[in-house]
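Trying the structure run again after the queue cleared.
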Amino acid sequence: MYEYIEGPLKEKNPTHCVIETGGIGYFIQITLTTFAQLETQVQAKLFLHQVVREDAHLLYGFFTKSEREMFRMLLTVSGIGANTARMMLSSLSADDIRQTILMGNASLLQGIKGIGAKTAQRIILDLRDKIGKDKSGGSEIFPFQDNRLKEEALSALVILGFNKGEAEKVISKILVAGSLTLEELIKKALKQL
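Done. Tokens:
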């Protein structure tokens, strides 16, 4: 129902803030990531998600649209409620969660309070395809991927006799972790093939 709220910050804490708009102070639940962005600000704009329950109407605020979209995706997973999704986004950034899900790193998700082995696996299974197709997150799925670098490394590995499909998967995984030179990329790929 609400897209965003903008106005003076009347109160800010690691778990919530109060933004005044039109003479009304709105109590908004936030993540630690959003709190870190708000620390020095006196005026703020937060993207909102409203949760209506039988006993409460709650507003969750996010500094970026991509963080709000990840929150909404997490809510689609069975067993993940608003507080658990907020805890996840307080522990890891939206982009880190996106990368973790794409790489299938369940152990990193299990390090978050309230996420067990089964829940971590469910998150990965439920969201991997959605995140793979999502281009609205504000960042590319492989933010460090350089197509020319990938093609050159792939060509070198195929010439060395490796299967093109397997080599491409390994290179893509390595590129997610960070930017490398061609030489470093090929060496890391050789270790994993």
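Residues 135-145 have pLDDT under 50 and may be disordered. Worth checking whether this holds up in the mutant runs.
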